[in-house]
Amino acid sequence: MTFLIENSLFFGIALTLGAYLLGVLLNRRFKIFIFNPLLIAITASIAVLAITGIEYEDYNYGAQHISALLTPSTVCLAIPLYEQMRLLKKNFTAIMIGIASGVLTSGIAIFAMAILFALNHTQYVTLLPKSITTAIGIGLSQELDGYIAITVAAIMITGLFGNIAGEAMCRMFRIGNPIAKGVAIGTASHVMGTSKAMEMGEIEGAMSSLSVAVAGFMTVAAAILFENLI
Amino acid sequence: MKYISQFAIIIVISFIGEILNRLIPLPIPASIYGMAILFTLLSTDVLKLSAVKETGKFLIYIMPIMFIPPTVGLMESWGTMQEFLFAIVTISLLSTVVVLAVSGRITQSIINRKEKGGRE
Questions:
Q1: Predicted ipTM?
Q2: Hey, where are the domains in chain B?
Q3: In chain A, which among 3-42 make CB contacts under 8 A with chain B?
Q4: pLDDT of residue B120
Q5: Contacts of A138-144 spanning 24+ positions with Cβ under 8 A
Q6: Which residues of B touch A12 (CB under 8 A)?
Q7: pLDDT tens, residue by residue, B34-64
């Protein structure tokens, strides 16, 4: 059967879309946050590949064309940001201080837990870029001589978690202001969290988009402070 | 026609971002350069919102599916991760919670203080 799927252009795309639709349907049926469409889609796709024994490479041969749209889509996050420009200008200081505090907190938290887990230098710097968007994270991990594949994994776990639980966490910490919600989700869980913030509201989405870019830059700058601590 | 020109503009900006990423020796991805370019073009009125709006919103709307293939790819790096998997997962989850709480609460309290100050 594998020869039918090998180098198939549409198998990966069909599986990705099908798995996401399944996720959306289950999410509508059971209104619990763990039934997150993205989480279900990823789990279902991995399950299909694991059960059928289809290689990731064969799946990604087609599926990579979907991910190729990620760069143009991220570019488009400038649109909601532009639409919320008035709010951005009015709250500029609050937003920037909020993002900077998140970036510093991230470094401190990772440093503290790295000591707790007795991680070595390479393992520690591998995790430093975990809250920022994959493309910047990969570059930073390279720069710091981390394990790139693991940095990507940590970024994915972070993003998925933000997408699943971001809204609930905002409620838990009594973050009710839409600007603050956007800053929190974008700073903590980059573009994957932002796509959830976009569903929560236009202001949340716009502020989250901005936070992804700003937090990315600030994390690259802050890495100099943190990299040699362990 | 509208959709084609909107898509063309978005793709060209992405392409320029890609070129900047190659020319400038900083770990800044094409998408962030592109986002900055589009934002600048819109806010300086060089580009009207209507020149990118529908296609842009569509791309943002379908964005979640674009994260699926790379995340499924984690099954490939399983081997290298096992060594300190527990630490990776714990650190990733816990730091996300603190970062979200701190950045959100600080932003909110500054906004609230400012609004209160304005009223007095």
A1: 0.91
A2: 1-66, 77-120
A3: 12, 16-17, 19-20, 37-38, 41-42
A4: 44
A5: A138/B27, A139/A220, A139/B26, A139/B27, A139/B28, A139/B29, A140/A219, A140/A220, A140/A223, A140/B27, A142/B27, A143/A223, A143/B27, A144/A223, A144/A227
A6: 69
A7: 999 999 999 999 999 999 999 999 999 998 9
